[in-house]
Amino acid sequence: MDLNKIPKIELHCHLDGSVRPDTILDIANKDNIDIPTYNINELKKYITAPEECHSLDEYLATFDIANKVMQTKENIKRIAYELLEDVSKYNVKYIEMRFAPLFHMAKGLKFDEIVQSVLDGIKEAESKFDVRGNVILCCMRHMSADDAIFVIEEGKKFLGKGVVAVDLAGSENLNFPEKFKEAFDLAKSYEYNITIHAGETGIGENVFKSIEMLHAQRIGHGVFAKDCVKSYQMLKDMGVTLEMCPTSNVQTKAVNAYEEHPLKDFLDDDIRISVNTDNMTVSDIDLDREFKILNEINKLTEEDFKRIYLYSVHASFASDEVKEELRKYV
């Protein structure tokens, strides 16, 4: 089985976690941006999570440098374009890239300029590569509920124009759904699609709370649903798709090793999953290698890969027309 030739869908990929190292270095030199080192090999150590990463918070710290070079329209457009170019090499046919616009306002860019720059990069890449793209706007849990409402309010004008959903990401605690309920009630009223990072750390309860309280149609990671009967059953009963990111989960210590990842158990029990990179640069991974690891450790069959692909198409926030095109690849 040639894993490179298998068509793929990427539903959980952070733009600022997938910036090419040489692009960071090039922009830092061009724009005179202060970064810890201008040696490419040393730089990679700062923007890639260590193999022995101790927690999700340590993993998230690697994003800081990338966000420094994503403060102009030109740079943001370039980075969005390059991400589509990169994933096209791994036969990714559709990607939903996510990012937090509030991280890119430090040098004076307005919200609309930031989002439009990402959409412009996607549009240009789509004209050159065999891949389609859409955008998910991230709200951040360490920020206020008012900040989330701001993102949702400002982003609604882009619905139907490349923005397809809103997300809630960042370090995870037990009571975050309660904090953001008003914001995501608003998002639902505006007809955003909704995906929520939940169950990435050891709090399986957050999965069902995100579905019940925040209207999540998909769950980012969801690893610890395995330890919460209510969350597990809700995933099965409602057909909610988990955006699983095995390499990232090993790095953040959601699981101690690939062999302990519940992905295959979920799949075998008819829980819908997709397979994703999370962050191509931070996790130093691409979908070809992610699939190769799963094939070697979990012994996934060609039929398993087909199911994952079709689950991903179904769960995507693409238009019905695009979904029909994507199904034709299998």
From TrEMBL:
Residue span, Adenosine deaminase domain: 7-328
Protein name as catalogued: Adenosine deaminase
Transport in keyword set: no
Molecular function GO terms recorded: hydrolase activity
Gene transcribed to yield this protein: add
Organism: Tepidibacter hydrothermalis
EC code: 3.5.4.4
Keyword Metal-binding belongs to the record: yes
Binding of Zn(2+), residues: H12, H14, H197, D278
Site (Important for catalytic activity) location in chain: H221
Keywords: Hydrolase, Metal-binding, Nucleotide metabolism, Zinc
